[in-house]
Fold this sequence. Notes:
Blueprint: H1 2-16, H2 21-37, H3 41-54, H4 60-72, H5 76-92, H6 99-115, H7 118-136, H8 141-156, H9 160-178, H10 183-199, H11 202-219, H12 225-240, H13 244-258
Helix pairs in contact: 1-2, 2-3, 2-4, 3-4, 4-5, 4-6, 5-6, 6-7, 7-8, 8-9, 8-10, 9-10, 10-11, 10-12, 11-12, 12-13
Amino acid sequence: xxxxxxxxxxxxxxxxxxxxxxxxxxxxxxxxxxxxxxxxxxxxxxxxxxxxxxxxxxxxxxxxxxxxxxxxxxxxxxxxxxxxxxxxxxxxxxxxxxxxxxxxxxxxxxxxxxxxxxxxxxxxxxxxxxxxxxxxxxxxxxxxxxxxxxxxxxxxxxxxxxxxxxxxxxxxxxxxxxxxxxxxxxxxxxxxxxxxxxxxxxxxxxxxxxxxxxxxxxxxxxxxxxxxxxxxxxxxxxxxxxxxxxxxxxxxxxxxxxx
Length: 259
């Protein structure tokens, strides 16, 4: 907490003395990120909105950050309205395909998925994933995450075989390009392990989950959401394979990490 408070003071001081609107905008983005980590969503929202009002030009990065904040606060309708407006502005301005537009499409797809508009969500995920592939390459970390999200969309629609094939292909690309110990590879392993659980292949699921957890433990703090996700899958595997003592141990450890 002390480190975050110190970083917040530095960001506030930097905004006040920023030599350019672009620098002030970047510092506001960093300040909002600090405020979100501190759990002060209202302050973060005010910071981002102030940045959008004072930016020299429209900054999609601030809009995306504000939309993420709305989604984290279960304010889906506001997130959808902001993301739709951001996409419309890009279309009106004839903006070329770029990763910020693709990220806007991904966020909008996630929000629409929650509201039940799966058809539009799927189309946005297809378009954004193709943009990442075309601009960054199939094995770029952002592309791998986009491919994972598209595959999970299909999994939620009951297309298990298609989802499994897509995640397996992305995982192979990720390992070849980045090796085993990479955050995007861990994400794909976690997703594939979820499919293996649904299929009842607990041995394969356990191996993938342990590998994902080992990688994430090298990258993230012990109570990070990525770690807790892997631990949750691990406890589910133990429960479904009737290893209840091990499941209880994992769940107790997770509770202690959250507290």
